[in-house]
Write a structure and sequence with these properties.
Keywords: Magnesium, Transferase. GO terms for molecular function: LPPG:FO 2-phospho-L-lactate transferase activity; magnesium ion binding. InterPro entries: CofD (IPR002882), CofD-like_dom_sf (IPR038136), FbiA/CofD (IPR010115). The chain is α/β, with parallel strands linked by helices. The protein has a single domain, classed as Rossmann fold, CATH 3.40.50.10680. Helix content is 36%, strand content 15%. The chain is globular and about 35 Å long. The model has no long low-confidence stretch (mean pLDDT 96).
């Protein structure tokens, strides 16, 4: 499994994807790629992801970030996408979406998110 953490899609994940060969390697990988939305209810969990997304004309929403990364069956990166319960209606053609509480308020909630990501990846294999 490859995991996109709930990091800023522009200045964190975007910077990594801009390194020559990284995006091509991810697209060539047979491992399921699961992402965790950094946006909950239209707002970033922390930081300035909303302003960064606006600068590249991407909607600040779980759906907007999923569309930005793209669904694998349509040439994008993601096979699966974890969203917060508030964004449970987030849907993108070709992308398996799982909703659960995404606010990591303690070790237990962090473990739950990691376990959900692993389970989603297993279901995609």
């Amino acid at each position: 499994m490859i995991l996109f953490p709930p990091s800023n899609p522009v200045v964190s994940i975007g910077t990594i994807l801009a390194i020559p060969g990284i995006k091509r390697a991810l697209l060539a990988s047979q491992a399921p790629l699961v992402g965790v939305s950094p946006i909950v209810g239209g707002s970033p969990v922390r930081g300035m992801a909303d302003a960064c997304l606006a600068s590249i004309d991407v909607q600040s929403s779980a759906w907007g970030v999923a569309q930005h990364y793209g669904a694998r069956p349509h040439g994008g990166l993601l096979h699966g996408w974890l969203v917060d319960d508030i964004d449970k209606d987030c849907a993108l053609d070709g992308l398996r979406v799982l909703a659960l509480p995404l606010i990591m308020k303690d070790l237990e909630s962090s473990k739950d998110i990691a376990a959900a990501a692993l389970e989603l990846a297993r279901s995609l294999s």
